[in-house]
Structures are given as structure tokens and as C-alpha cells.
Amino acid sequence: MTAPRPTVALLDYGLGNVHSAAKALEAAGADVTLTADRATVMEADGLVVPGVGSMAACMAGIQAIRGGELIGRRLAGTRPVLGICVGMQVLFTAGEEGGVHTNALDEWPGTVRRLKADVLPHMGWAEVEAPEDSQLFAGIRDERFYFVHSYAATEWTIEPHPRMRQPRVTWAEHGERFLAAVENGPLSATQFHPEKSGEAGIRLLTNWVRGL
Amino acid sequence: MLATRVIPCLDVAHGRVVKGVKFQGLTDQGDPVELAARYAEQGADELTFLDVKATVEDAGTMLEVVERTAEQIFIPLTVGGGVRSRDDVARLLAHGADKVGVNSAAIRDPELIDRIVADFGSQVLVLSLDVRREASMPSGFEVTTHGGSRGAGLDAIAWAREGVSRGVGELLVNSIDADGTKEGFDLELLRAVREAATTPVIASGGAGEPAHFAPAVEAGADAVLAASIFHSGQCTIGEVKAAMREAGVTVR
């Protein structure tokens, strides 16, 4: 007898391309449902928040299904949530994309802003600096991941607290240092696309799914 | 630091990979998904499908190929050829493409770029330029249409700049003069585009051996795209990357 596969809800808020994310999560060992149904989202072992395009458009889509509330309720119950790309950016306080200020979900402090780099978007396979005790990157060393973005969070300002489990923060660099991934209790996120990062990406998703 | 991307381009017609010289005398080379999987195993950093026929009747066939690929191969996929409207882009993305290449349609209607960028973001849009040398142009380079056979009367460097200012995410620069020669990329063209553009630049046209790729990177390319050198079995992606690494280029 095999153990049942963890269930993952892939948050459906009208994004065009979520095929690869769904299939990659299945390859990582999950049973995946693309859904905005509140009960399904709450009951799933894990919730994935995808995101491409502009932060303002993604926030509008998420708010239209009251996605912020769903994410907040899951986190209050220490139920895992994983944000990918713009799905990571919306977890910060706000964004400054195209000169427009967008209020975001404010799970983490900080503003997502345009990277100071000669060539944008930051597009392609980059190395990351993951902490030794990272769960997402466990067993994954010297691999590159696929990034495509012009904006990022460049600061991590949550002070360590002895009564709090230490957040694990992974950095990358393009013109300047920025947050490539964060693991903070039940809430994790990657600025890169694990579902587009070949075998290394599937291994990272497998690490997340195993923890569900 | 980013690794320079090596991108095999698969010419697709009626749902099959085809090979021909300048789109003439096409011969069947197999199933696009199988070939794409083989390239991904060899270390391809992205894949590009170019719909060389792009007839209306074939649109559904292409979407099915894109969907099957995106479900099985977890690296970025760009689809170009015959993309004429915002709705064409929406359909390709919905079936699993990560980026779309736009060429002639943007020359006819530059505002198409604005509409695609507004709805889907810069990162989905690759502006594809088929460029030939033309002394009457200010930069000496002209954009062409119809597979390079007709001049568009548009300066290639000025057009690249306009594309960037309208928000395209990448420029695919294909040299019509170098295409098919197997004598190497047009380095002068790449330097001129690099100087004008703040987006990533993909070099295309002219690759005949592994040693040809590193000079394109030195000239300013962020990615290199080739078709026949890989399809012919002349060399693998791994061999191209080994030659690039040897020449000091960072590859994955």
C-alpha cells in the first residue's frame, strides 16, 4: 500500500498559464486541483499561489476571489502556502511597478521594486545562495533556477526573535542582491519558477510537497 | 550571474517538426514533443517552436503540440510564427506557452506590442527581427518580412529601440544574411543591437559549429538560438555548451 499523495490547491484567479505549475507539482508527488473554491482551498494540504505579469493585475485577480483572506486563514492554522514569482511578490507590503503603488498582502514587510540592473527583465538561469538548513533546497546544491522578472524584494527586515522559528532566506543577484526564496513557518515563496527549472525545480517542489 | 541560454529552435508545420532551406522543400523530422524532450535532456535552457506554415486551419494543431510539451517538459517554451493578435497570444499562453514571438504583425501594427504587454506583461513578449544588411538604412541594417525576402523599409536598430520602449521583454535577432551560411553569427549586427537595447538579446542565424557561439556572446548576446546544427545531429547541446565553457562563457 502506498501512502496517499498530498493534495495541493493551485489558486485559480484567472491567470493564463498554470499548466506547467500543475503538471510539475504532480511530478513532485501531489494531487493537484486548480481552484478558487474556498472549501477546497482550505482543505488542501498545500496551497500554491502562482503569478505572472504585473503585480497590480495579480493583486486585482487575487482580491476578486478574496484570496488574501484565504491565504491569511490558512497561515493562521499553520497550513502551508507557497507563492511563485509574482505569487511571492504579492506577499510583501506593497509594490512599485511601472511607477504605480500597489498595496499587497503584507504577510512580510517590504516593498517590491525595480531591480537596479543594466539589462531587464532578469531572464534566465541563475545561482542562488540558500542557507544550510533550508528545507526547500535540501539536497540541492550547485543548481541554477529559472528567473523571469524585473521587480523583486531586496530587503529582509524581520528581526530574529528567540521565541520565533528563524526564517530561512535565500538570495540571488542581478545588478543587486534580491530575495530568491523565503521559508517562514508555513509560508514559503520563490521568486524563480521551479516549474520551469527542469529537474532541480522538480526536486525543490518535491521537498515542499513532502513537508505537507 | 546568469548563464548564457542555449535555445534549440524547432520548425513546426502541421504539427510535425520539419526541415528545409528557407522554408522550402520541407521534410518531416518527427514529433515536436519527442524532439523537445530530447533537447531538454541534453541541457537545453529553453525551447522555441516556430510555426513555419501558421495557417488558420493549423492553429488548433499547434495549440495541441504546445499543450503536450508544456505538460511534460519543465523548461520555458516560446512559440512564434503567425502570431497576429492579442487573442492569439492569450490562446498560446492558455495552452502552456511561456512566451510568444511576434514579428510581422508588430511591424504592421506597433501598438499590438502595447496591447500584449498591458495584458500579459513584458516577460511574455519576444520581438523577433529578421534583419538584412541594407546600405540605405541609417544603421546599415533593415528589418524584413516574408522570411527575409521583402524589406520592411524599417531601420533594424531603430525598430529594436522602439520595441524596447514599447515594453517587449526580449529581442530575437535573426540575421537573414548569415542564416543558412553556417559561417557564424553576424557579430556586427549583434553589437549594434546590444548597444541600443536594455532587454536580453537572443542571437540567431549562421551557427555552423560549436565554436561559433562564444563570439556571439562576446558581441553582447544573452542567449543563442539555432536550429539546423542541432537537428542535423551534427552536434548536441552539450557539445555546444562545452565549447562555450572552454571559451570562458558561463553556461548551465
UniProtKB/TrEMBL annotation, chain A:
Residues 10-207 form the Glutamine amidotransferase domain. Its EC number is 4.3.2.10, 3.5.1.2. Signal peptide: none annotated. One of its GO terms (biological process) is L-histidine biosynthetic process. It catalyses: L-glutamine + H2O = L-glutamate + NH4(+); 5-[(5-phospho-1-deoxy-D-ribulos-1-ylimino)methylamino]-1-(5-phospho-beta-D-ribosyl)imidazole-4-carboxamide + L-glutamine = D-erythro-1-(imidazol-4-yl)glycerol 3-phosphate + 5-amino-1-(5-phospho-beta-D-ribosyl)imidazole-4-carboxamide + L-glutamate + H(+). GO terms for molecular function: glutaminase activity; imidazoleglycerol-phosphate synthase activity; lyase activity. Its main location: cytoplasm. InterPro entries: Class_I_gatase-like, GATASE, Imidazole-glycPsynth_HisH. It comes from the Bacteria. The active site is at C85 (nucleophile), H193, E195. It holds the Pfam family GATase. It is found in: Cytoplasm. Pathway: Amino-acid biosynthesis; L-histidine biosynthesis; L-histidine from 5-phospho-alpha-D-ribose 1-diphosphate: step 5/9. Keywords: Amino-acid biosynthesis, Cytoplasm, Glutamine amidotransferase, Histidine biosynthesis, Hydrolase, Lyase. GO terms for cellular component: cytoplasm. IGPS catalyzes the conversion of PRFAR and glutamine to IGP, AICAR and glutamate. The HisH subunit catalyzes the hydrolysis of glutamine to glutamate and ammonia as part of the synthesis of IGP and AICAR. The resulting ammonia molecule is channeled to the active site of HisF. Heterodimer of HisH and HisF. NCBIfam families: IMP_synth_hisH. This is Imidazole glycerol phosphate synthase subunit HisH. It comes from Agrococcus carbonis.
Automatic annotation (TrEMBL), chain B:
The active site is at D11, D130. Keywords: Amino-acid biosynthesis, Cytoplasm, Histidine biosynthesis, Lyase. One of its GO terms (cellular component) is cytoplasm. It catalyses: 5-[(5-phospho-1-deoxy-D-ribulos-1-ylimino)methylamino]-1-(5-phospho-beta-D-ribosyl)imidazole-4-carboxamide + L-glutamine = D-erythro-1-(imidazol-4-yl)glycerol 3-phosphate + 5-amino-1-(5-phospho-beta-D-ribosyl)imidazole-4-carboxamide + L-glutamate + H(+). It is found in: Cytoplasm. One of its GO terms (biological process) is L-histidine biosynthetic process. Pathway: Amino-acid biosynthesis; L-histidine biosynthesis; L-histidine from 5-phospho-alpha-D-ribose 1-diphosphate: step 5/9. NCBIfam families: hisF. This is Imidazole glycerol phosphate synthase subunit HisF. It comes from Agrococcus carbonis.
